[in-house]
Protein backbone atom coordinates (compact mmCIF):
# COMPACT_ATOMS: atom_id res chain seq x y z
CA UNK A 1 0.00 0.00 0.00
CA UNK A 2 1.27 3.48 -0.89
CA UNK A 3 1.97 5.66 2.14
CA UNK A 4 0.49 9.13 1.54
CA UNK A 5 1.55 12.30 3.36
CA UNK A 6 0.66 15.95 2.69
CA UNK A 7 3.94 17.63 1.83
CA UNK A 8 5.45 20.66 0.10
CA UNK A 9 8.69 20.11 -1.80
CA UNK A 10 11.14 22.66 -3.14
CA UNK A 11 12.01 22.54 -6.85
CA UNK A 12 15.67 23.11 -7.65
CA UNK A 13 15.92 24.40 -11.21
CA UNK A 14 19.21 22.90 -12.38
CA UNK A 15 19.08 25.21 -15.41
CA UNK A 16 19.71 28.11 -13.02
CA UNK A 17 22.29 26.56 -10.70
CA UNK A 18 25.76 25.10 -10.77
CA UNK A 19 25.89 21.66 -9.11
CA UNK A 20 27.30 22.81 -5.76
CA UNK A 21 24.87 25.71 -5.64
CA UNK A 22 21.96 23.35 -6.35
CA UNK A 23 23.03 21.04 -3.50
CA UNK A 24 23.34 23.97 -1.08
CA UNK A 25 19.95 25.34 -2.14
CA UNK A 26 18.16 22.03 -1.73
CA UNK A 27 19.79 21.40 1.63
CA UNK A 28 18.80 24.86 2.87
CA UNK A 29 15.21 24.35 1.73
CA UNK A 30 14.88 21.01 3.52
CA UNK A 31 16.42 22.39 6.71
CA UNK A 32 13.99 25.31 6.57
CA UNK A 33 10.84 23.21 6.47
CA UNK A 34 10.34 21.88 2.95
CA UNK A 35 9.75 18.13 3.05
CA UNK A 36 11.99 17.41 0.10
CA UNK A 37 13.48 18.52 -3.17
CA UNK A 38 12.66 17.96 -6.84
CA UNK A 39 15.09 17.76 -9.76
CA UNK A 40 14.60 17.43 -13.52
CA UNK A 41 16.93 15.32 -15.65
CA UNK A 42 17.84 17.90 -18.28
CA UNK A 43 20.54 17.94 -20.94
CA UNK A 44 20.15 21.59 -21.89
CA UNK A 45 18.79 24.71 -20.18
CA UNK A 46 15.65 26.34 -21.52
CA UNK A 47 17.51 29.60 -22.16
CA UNK A 48 21.17 30.19 -23.08
CA UNK A 49 21.55 32.73 -20.27
CA UNK A 50 20.58 30.11 -17.68
CA UNK A 51 23.93 28.56 -18.54
CA UNK A 52 23.55 25.29 -16.61
CA UNK A 53 22.39 21.70 -17.06
CA UNK A 54 24.23 19.40 -14.63
CA UNK A 55 23.51 15.65 -14.47
CA UNK A 56 20.48 15.39 -12.18
CA UNK A 57 21.26 11.91 -10.88
CA UNK A 58 24.66 12.96 -9.54
CA UNK A 59 23.20 16.09 -7.95
CA UNK A 60 20.43 14.00 -6.35
CA UNK A 61 23.00 11.74 -4.73
CA UNK A 62 24.90 14.71 -3.35
CA UNK A 63 21.72 16.26 -1.95
CA UNK A 64 20.87 12.98 -0.29
CA UNK A 65 24.23 12.91 1.47
CA UNK A 66 23.78 16.40 2.90
CA UNK A 67 20.10 16.41 3.83
CA UNK A 68 17.37 14.23 5.32
CA UNK A 69 14.39 15.07 3.08
CA UNK A 70 12.84 13.17 0.21
CA UNK A 71 14.21 13.53 -3.31
CA UNK A 72 12.29 13.18 -6.57
CA UNK A 73 13.92 13.00 -10.00
CA UNK A 74 11.82 13.66 -13.08
CA UNK A 75 13.13 11.83 -16.14
CA UNK A 76 12.05 10.85 -19.65
CA UNK A 77 13.48 7.34 -20.17
CA UNK A 78 13.63 5.98 -23.67
CA UNK A 79 15.72 8.54 -25.52
CA UNK A 80 19.01 9.50 -23.86
CA UNK A 81 18.51 6.75 -21.30
CA UNK A 82 16.88 3.32 -21.65
CA UNK A 83 14.16 2.65 -19.04
CA UNK A 84 16.34 -0.10 -17.53
CA UNK A 85 19.11 2.42 -16.87
CA UNK A 86 16.68 4.89 -15.28
CA UNK A 87 15.49 2.04 -13.06
CA UNK A 88 19.08 1.24 -12.10
CA UNK A 89 19.76 4.90 -11.31
CA UNK A 90 16.79 5.35 -8.98
CA UNK A 91 17.30 2.07 -7.09
CA UNK A 92 20.97 2.92 -6.57
CA UNK A 93 19.96 6.21 -4.96
CA UNK A 94 17.33 4.39 -2.91
CA UNK A 95 19.91 1.85 -1.73
CA UNK A 96 22.22 4.65 -0.62
CA UNK A 97 19.44 6.68 1.03
CA UNK A 98 16.56 4.32 1.86
CA UNK A 99 12.96 5.42 1.66
CA UNK A 100 13.68 8.88 0.31
CA UNK A 101 13.52 8.68 -3.48
CA UNK A 102 10.73 8.87 -6.07
CA UNK A 103 10.87 8.57 -9.85
CA UNK A 104 8.70 10.92 -11.90
CA UNK A 105 8.26 9.68 -15.47
CA UNK A 106 7.69 12.20 -18.26
CA UNK A 107 7.05 11.94 -21.97
CA UNK A 108 9.99 14.32 -22.45
CA UNK A 109 10.90 17.44 -24.39
CA UNK A 110 12.83 17.60 -27.62
CA UNK A 111 15.24 20.17 -26.20
CA UNK A 112 16.73 17.41 -24.03
CA UNK A 113 15.96 14.16 -25.79
CA UNK A 114 16.65 14.86 -29.47
CA UNK A 115 20.35 15.40 -28.78
CA UNK A 116 21.19 11.72 -29.30
CA UNK A 117 20.04 12.05 -32.89
CA UNK A 118 16.99 9.79 -32.87
CA UNK A 119 13.62 10.46 -34.44
CA UNK A 120 11.51 12.74 -32.27
CA UNK A 121 8.00 11.26 -32.25
CA UNK A 122 4.59 12.90 -32.22
CA UNK A 123 2.71 13.40 -28.95
CA UNK A 124 0.70 10.16 -29.19
CA UNK A 125 3.81 8.04 -29.66
CA UNK A 126 5.63 9.86 -26.85
CA UNK A 127 2.74 8.97 -24.54
CA UNK A 128 2.87 5.31 -25.56
CA UNK A 129 6.62 5.26 -25.01
CA UNK A 130 6.10 6.81 -21.56
CA UNK A 131 3.75 4.09 -20.39
CA UNK A 132 5.82 1.32 -21.93
CA UNK A 133 8.85 2.69 -20.07
CA UNK A 134 6.82 2.64 -16.85
CA UNK A 135 5.89 -0.99 -17.55
CA UNK A 136 9.53 -1.98 -18.01
CA UNK A 137 10.61 -0.27 -14.80
CA UNK A 138 7.82 -1.88 -12.81
CA UNK A 139 8.71 -5.28 -14.30
CA UNK A 140 12.31 -4.83 -13.25
CA UNK A 141 11.34 -3.76 -9.74
CA UNK A 142 8.92 -6.64 -9.30
CA UNK A 143 11.29 -9.31 -10.60
CA UNK A 144 14.42 -7.96 -8.95
CA UNK A 145 13.01 -7.91 -5.41
CA UNK A 146 12.36 -11.63 -5.90
CA UNK A 147 15.89 -12.23 -7.31
CA UNK A 148 14.44 -13.09 -10.70
CA UNK A 149 15.11 -12.03 -14.28
CA UNK A 150 12.56 -10.42 -16.55
CA UNK A 151 12.20 -9.64 -20.24
CA UNK A 152 10.28 -7.20 -22.37
CA UNK A 153 9.53 -6.97 -26.07
CA UNK A 154 7.21 -4.11 -26.87
CA UNK A 155 6.39 -1.61 -29.58
CA UNK A 156 9.21 0.75 -28.62
CA UNK A 157 11.62 -1.02 -26.26
CA UNK A 158 13.30 -4.36 -25.77
CA UNK A 159 14.78 -5.76 -22.59
CA UNK A 160 16.77 -8.96 -22.69
CA UNK A 161 16.95 -11.27 -19.69
CA UNK A 162 17.82 -8.84 -16.90
CA UNK A 163 17.42 -7.94 -13.26
CA UNK A 164 18.58 -5.09 -11.00
CA UNK A 165 21.33 -6.61 -8.89
CA UNK A 166 21.35 -3.74 -6.38
CA UNK A 167 17.89 -3.39 -4.84
CA UNK A 168 16.83 -1.37 -1.78
CA UNK A 169 14.57 -2.86 0.86
CA UNK A 170 11.88 -0.31 -0.10
CA UNK A 171 11.21 0.02 -3.83
CA UNK A 172 11.00 3.66 -5.01
CA UNK A 173 7.56 4.94 -5.95
CA UNK A 174 6.84 5.73 -9.60
CA UNK A 175 4.66 8.68 -10.56
CA UNK A 176 3.64 9.56 -14.11
CA UNK A 177 3.21 13.06 -15.50
CA UNK A 178 -0.32 13.52 -16.86
CA UNK A 179 -1.35 16.28 -19.24
CA UNK A 180 -4.90 15.15 -19.96
CA UNK A 181 -7.65 12.81 -18.77
CA UNK A 182 -6.40 9.82 -20.75
CA UNK A 183 -2.90 9.87 -19.26
CA UNK A 184 -4.32 10.72 -15.84
CA UNK A 185 -6.55 7.64 -15.97
CA UNK A 186 -3.73 5.40 -17.14
CA UNK A 187 -1.47 6.69 -14.39
CA UNK A 188 -4.13 5.67 -11.87
CA UNK A 189 -4.05 2.13 -13.25
CA UNK A 190 -0.34 1.50 -13.69
CA UNK A 191 1.66 3.81 -11.40
CA UNK A 192 2.01 4.65 -7.73
CA UNK A 193 0.79 8.15 -8.44
CA UNK A 194 0.28 11.05 -10.82
CA UNK A 195 1.86 14.47 -11.19
CA UNK A 196 0.29 17.39 -13.07
CA UNK A 197 1.14 20.99 -13.82
CA UNK A 198 -0.91 23.56 -11.92
CA UNK A 199 -3.80 24.91 -13.99
CA UNK A 200 -7.30 26.27 -13.55
CA UNK A 201 -9.17 24.38 -10.80
CA UNK A 202 -11.80 22.97 -13.17
CA UNK A 203 -9.13 21.50 -15.46
CA UNK A 204 -7.16 20.05 -12.55
CA UNK A 205 -10.36 18.56 -11.08
CA UNK A 206 -10.92 16.66 -14.34
CA UNK A 207 -7.44 15.15 -14.10
CA UNK A 208 -7.95 14.14 -10.47
CA UNK A 209 -11.26 12.51 -11.31
CA UNK A 210 -9.75 10.60 -14.24
CA UNK A 211 -6.86 9.43 -12.07
CA UNK A 212 -9.26 8.15 -9.42
CA UNK A 213 -11.21 6.32 -12.13
CA UNK A 214 -8.01 4.54 -13.11
CA UNK A 215 -7.32 3.68 -9.48
CA UNK A 216 -10.77 2.11 -9.12
CA UNK A 217 -10.28 0.11 -12.31
CA UNK A 218 -7.04 -1.28 -10.88
CA UNK A 219 -8.51 -1.87 -7.44
CA UNK A 220 -6.18 0.60 -5.75
CA UNK A 221 -7.03 2.27 -2.45
CA UNK A 222 -4.26 4.88 -2.44
CA UNK A 223 -2.10 6.83 -4.85
CA UNK A 224 0.24 9.81 -4.53
CA UNK A 225 -1.25 12.84 -6.27
CA UNK A 226 1.21 15.67 -6.91
CA UNK A 227 0.88 19.13 -8.46
CA UNK A 228 3.82 21.13 -9.82
CA UNK A 229 3.30 24.82 -9.05
CA UNK A 230 5.30 27.70 -10.47
CA UNK A 231 5.18 31.18 -8.95
CA UNK A 232 7.26 34.33 -8.70
CA UNK A 233 7.88 35.94 -5.32
CA UNK A 234 10.18 38.86 -4.54
CA UNK A 235 10.30 41.68 -2.02
CA UNK A 236 8.34 43.94 -4.41
CA UNK A 237 5.73 43.18 -7.07
CA UNK A 238 7.92 44.87 -9.68
CA UNK A 239 10.89 42.64 -8.81
CA UNK A 240 8.65 39.56 -8.89
CA UNK A 241 7.51 40.26 -12.44
CA UNK A 242 11.01 41.20 -13.59
CA UNK A 243 12.38 37.96 -12.15
CA UNK A 244 9.80 35.96 -14.09
CA UNK A 245 10.40 37.84 -17.32
CA UNK A 246 14.19 37.54 -17.14
CA UNK A 247 14.64 34.12 -15.52
CA UNK A 248 11.61 32.05 -16.60
CA UNK A 249 9.68 33.73 -19.45
CA UNK A 250 8.71 30.23 -20.69
CA UNK A 251 5.93 30.34 -18.11
CA UNK A 252 4.19 32.92 -20.29
CA UNK A 253 4.41 31.10 -23.62
CA UNK A 254 0.98 30.48 -25.08
CA UNK A 255 1.79 27.13 -26.67
CA UNK A 256 3.48 23.86 -25.68
CA UNK A 257 7.27 23.84 -25.90
CA UNK A 258 7.84 20.09 -26.11
CA UNK A 259 8.96 20.18 -29.75
CA UNK A 260 11.43 23.08 -29.45
CA UNK A 261 14.98 21.81 -29.87
CA UNK A 262 17.31 24.67 -28.98
CA UNK A 263 17.66 27.07 -26.03
CA UNK A 264 18.32 29.77 -28.59
CA UNK A 265 14.95 29.09 -30.23
CA UNK A 266 13.23 29.28 -26.83
CA UNK A 267 14.94 32.61 -26.16
CA UNK A 268 13.73 33.96 -29.50
CA UNK A 269 10.14 32.87 -28.83
CA UNK A 270 10.25 34.20 -25.27
CA UNK A 271 11.00 37.72 -26.51
CA UNK A 272 7.29 38.11 -27.21
CA UNK A 273 6.24 37.22 -23.65
CA UNK A 274 4.78 40.12 -21.68
CA UNK A 275 4.12 40.74 -18.00
CA UNK A 276 0.42 40.10 -18.66
CA UNK A 277 1.25 36.72 -20.20
CA UNK A 278 3.17 35.73 -17.08
CA UNK A 279 0.54 36.98 -14.64
CA UNK A 280 -2.20 35.13 -16.52
CA UNK A 281 -0.46 31.81 -15.91
CA UNK A 282 1.34 31.92 -12.56
CA UNK A 283 0.96 33.93 -9.31
CA UNK A 284 3.30 36.94 -9.29
CA UNK A 285 3.38 38.87 -6.02
CA UNK A 286 5.44 40.14 -3.11
CA UNK A 287 2.66 39.12 -0.73
CA UNK A 288 3.35 35.70 0.80
CA UNK A 289 -0.34 35.25 1.52
CA UNK A 290 -1.12 35.32 -2.21
CA UNK A 291 1.17 32.35 -2.71
CA UNK A 292 -0.05 30.61 0.45
CA UNK A 293 -3.65 30.84 -0.74
CA UNK A 294 -2.67 29.49 -4.16
CA UNK A 295 -0.93 26.47 -2.64
CA UNK A 296 -3.79 25.90 -0.23
CA UNK A 297 -6.17 25.58 -3.19
CA UNK A 298 -4.40 22.42 -4.31
CA UNK A 299 -4.31 20.89 -0.85
CA UNK A 300 -8.04 21.55 -0.60
CA UNK A 301 -8.56 19.78 -3.93
CA UNK A 302 -6.97 16.62 -2.57
CA UNK A 303 -3.35 16.72 -3.69
CA UNK A 304 -0.93 14.97 -1.37
CA UNK A 305 2.25 16.68 -2.51
CA UNK A 306 2.99 20.12 -3.92
CA UNK A 307 6.18 20.83 -5.80
CA UNK A 308 6.90 24.57 -5.63
CA UNK A 309 9.17 26.35 -8.08
CA UNK A 310 9.86 30.02 -7.44
CA UNK A 311 11.07 30.98 -10.90
CA UNK A 312 13.50 33.71 -9.90
CA UNK A 313 17.08 33.31 -8.77
CA UNK A 314 16.30 34.78 -5.34
CA UNK A 315 16.15 31.34 -3.79
CA UNK A 316 17.68 32.12 -0.38
CA UNK A 317 15.14 34.89 0.23
CA UNK A 318 12.31 32.73 -1.06
CA UNK A 319 13.22 29.81 1.18
CA UNK A 320 13.32 32.16 4.17
CA UNK A 321 9.93 33.77 3.46
CA UNK A 322 8.30 30.44 2.60
CA UNK A 323 9.53 28.78 5.80
CA UNK A 324 8.33 31.71 7.91
CA UNK A 325 5.14 32.95 6.28
CA UNK A 326 3.80 30.23 3.97
CA UNK A 327 4.58 26.65 4.97
CA UNK A 328 3.47 26.96 8.65
CA UNK A 329 0.14 28.47 7.58
CA UNK A 330 -0.90 25.76 5.13
CA UNK A 331 -3.75 23.57 6.36
CA UNK A 332 -3.64 19.94 5.30
Describe the structure.
It contains twelve helices and eleven strands. It has a single domain (7-329), classed as TIM Barrel, CATH 3.20.20. Strands 1-2-3-4-7-8-9-11 form an eight-stranded parallel beta barrel, surrounded by eight helices. A two-stranded antiparallel ribbon has the order 5-6. Helix 5 runs parallel beside helix 6 (181-190). Strand 1, helix 1 (19-31) and strand 2 form a beta-alpha-beta unit. The chain has helices at 19-31, 56-66, 83-96, 110-113, 123-144, 181-190, 201-218, 237-247, 263-270, 275-279, 288-301, 315-325, and strands at residues 7-11, 36-40, 70-75, 101-105, 150-153, 158-162, 173-177, 193-197, 224-233, 284-285, 305-310. It is of the alpha/beta class.
SS field, number of helical segments: 12
Number of strands: 11
Describe the strand arrangement of the main beta sheet, using strand numbers.
1-2-3-4-7-8-9-11
Q: Supply the number of structural domains.
A: 1
* CATH fold call: TIM Barrel
Q: Which class best fits the helix and strand makeup?
A: alpha/beta
The major β-sheet equals: 8 strands, parallel, barrel
Q: Which CATH class?
A: Alpha Beta
Radius of gyration: 19 Å
CATH architecture: Alpha-Beta Barrel
Distance between the termini: 21 Å
Question: Beta-sheet strand percentage?
Answer: 15-25%
Give helix % range. Answer: 40-55%
Overall spatial form? globular
Could you list the spans in which at least 5 consecutive residues all have pLDDT below 50?
A: none
Mean pLDDT: 95
**What is the H level of CATH, i.e. the homologous superfamily?**
Luciferase-like domain
Order of helices and strands: EHEHEHEHHEEEHEHEHHHEHEH
